[in-house]
Amino acid sequence: PGSVSAAFQEYLQHLGLQDFPCGFGSWNKSRLSARRSPWAEPAGLEEAVPPGEETPEALLELLRDQHSPWALPPDCSPQDRLLREVAALAPELLHGSRVFQAVKSLRILDKGVEEVDEGLLRFQQLEELILSANHISRVTSAHLPRTLKVLELCCNAVDDLQDLCARPPPELQHLGLGYNRLCGPSQEKHFTVDFWPNLVSLDLSFNNLTDLLELVSQLSTLQNLHILVLQGNPLALIPTYRGFLVDSLPKLSILDDIHIQPEERQQFHGLARQPELIRSEARVVVSIGEMKGLPNPEAFQQLEVGSEGPVITYSYCVTYEF
């Protein structure tokens, strides 16, 4: 599928919400028709289940028993289990477009998704959107539900955040952009309180961000930021990288998956006021002590000056691996 909507339809088919023991069918027709009837009896006064039909408890047992052919695998998500059980107990709640109202967490991993389409706006209760390991390069904020609190785009091809930051979800608390193609210094400007007023957790690991000073100046505006992941970026190679971040962002609790202890914060106190310690370039000197397997140059220096003997030129390619 090329879009999130297409991948979601495949996901629903995989769950089989319209097939036994879920959905509408001969196994629950009297119970559901009575529920929809205006003359339905009050709860607790219903007659016994007719022959050939199943009780709600029996349908749930078929979904939950691991020996049942209709059971979900043990590693399924809580959302999978919830939708299946709702489809068994009250399938009318998931009938047609109502299914979009029941989804609060949507996980579509490694399904070849390339587009975050406007079909996502049908999920009016969506709080968590996980789209990791796909092929997404752009995210248009106008296609994201305003209710989102978690947006995870790890392992995609995102290289620009302009469209995402045009009108981002205001309540977003976690933004995951690890293992993408964000390059500095053009992208640092997108990580300010103007775009993410409620952001608590930010993952920018393994991109190509290079300007630590500029990034820190933007991140310092995020008053609720407590968790930050920057490892894997070129800027993380700076010797004073961790200390500078710890001292510059006093509300940070976890940096690169390591808790910031009070002793560490005290150790790096004052480093934020010394930006001259952060250098944007480095020099490496490589000295060659001995080379083996090459002809001795002295063997080719026996020709007299001015002789017309053949001249042989040797070229060598030397590769350094660090």
From TrEMBL:
InterPro entries, per the entry: Leu-rich_rpt, LRR_dom_sf
Keyword Signal on entry: no
Protein name: LRC43 protein
Transmembrane regions listed in the UniProt entry: none
Sorted UniProt keywords: Leucine-rich repeat, Repeat
A cellular component annotation (GO) from this entry: cytoplasm
PROSITE patterns tied to this protein: LRR (PS51450)
Keyword 4Fe-4S: no
UniProt xrefs under Gene3D superfamilies: Ribonuclease Inhibitor
